[in-house]
Design goal:
This protein is α+β, with helices and mostly antiparallel strands. Helix content is 30%, strand content 14%. It has a four-stranded antiparallel sheet with strand order 1-2-4-5. It has a two-stranded antiparallel sheet with strand order 3-6.
Length: 113
């Protein structure tokens, strides 16, 4: 009697999507990497790993390679993930201008009494 969202023995739910970015197995690889490390070391090790964005797939090398700073240092996997999120920016966002908060995009809801 399992549930769809049950965690395995390691506590991993198998879902590594965050901020519109799916790291897949790269998330585990980064978590197990020795820190501190540099962009160059990470790209040598994991450059071909695929990162899924909303409607697109890019390699780790394509994402961090755009930075052009091979000597950038990272103290943790969280630092690397944050840099990935920063580098993909809008590319990870679904429909631009979409909001699930109701109303019509661009509609002025301020009312003067």
């Amino acid at each position: 009697m399992g549930t769809e969202n049950s965690a395995d023995a390691s506590g991993d739910t198998g879902d590594s999507r965050e901020h519109g970015v799916e790291l897949g197995s790269l998330a585990d690889e980064l978590a197990g990497h020795d820190y501190p490390t540099t962009t160059d070391e990470l790209l040598d090790e994991y450059g071909a790993a695929e990162i899924e964005l909303t409607g697109d797939t890019r390699t780790f090398r394509e994402v961090l390679g755009e930075m052009g700073n091979e000597r950038q240092e990272y103290e943790s996997a969280q630092d690397v993930r944050q840099m990935i999120y920063n580098m993909v920016g809008e590319d990870a966002v679904g429909r631009k201008g979409y909001s699930d908060r109701g109303g019509i995009a661009g509609e002025n809801t301020d009312e003067t009494v």
